[in-house]
Model the fold of this input.
Amino acid sequence: MIQLVFPLFILFIGLLTLCILWRINSRKYISSGTVASAYDAWTKDKLLERLWGEHIHLGFYATGKQNIDFREAKVQFVHKLVNWSGLDKLPKGSRILDVGCGIGGSSRILAKYYGFNVTAITISPAQVKRARELTPSGLNCNFLVMDALNLKFEDGSFDAVWSVEAGAHMNDKNKFADEMLRILRPGGYLAIADWNSRDLGTKPPSLLEKIVLKQLLEQWVHPRFISINDFNHILNINKNSSGNVVSENWNFFTNPSWNDSILEGLRRPQTILSLGPGAIIKSLREIPTIVLMDWAFKKGLMEFGVYK
Done:
């Protein structure tokens, strides 16, 4: 009996310690500066890049099951969004703005495979530095530090605007939409993908759902979530002469990403170990949030919205 109790006690203490670290080290949104700081830290420790590769976003699984490599699923996501949004109809040399570019994974695909001239922005100086390091010379990608809520471009400067999983970090969703549509030329293309909550006004969250949403906001620097319909409405109110914005929910195609993101640590343990003991703690620290994300998206509390 003692032989069984002791390991369980050690496991309990370990889990309790992890939960305490998770709560103490939460990443609550205070201002855009907290978003920049979080991504600077994630980029500099290289753990996320070593585990997830060049793409810090979810993948696309055509069958809704984990049937392809996690990193390949992320590449597939970019191509699927290009095709779904109509960006593949644009000629080579078209001017694309990538809003919230991370370390440039999508930007490099847009430039290399579609021949676009890509300007990519992020609020994180560390991400811009790393994106430039990863981008081969001669590829038409220009990375800049810039706030998505205050774009330093003239009206109608771009043929298309691309943004993947950046909007959840924006405190002012109207301003976010305003700025993207302002710099999009009339007749241009829009390709946006983002994390959304369900319509909480129509179906208010339960106590458990409120607790989960609070953690999802506070752990990964999100000020607030809105529904797909709400953001689609905002985009259509602010649209230029490009036409109506339409949206879909890609939960089915993206949900396997959450389990895959945890399994990557098991598939590539040497990646974590090579970064030292601290990387192990950092990896474990993210698991509760990923588990909550997986639960929230599977239950429909969260939705993966795409807009064109």
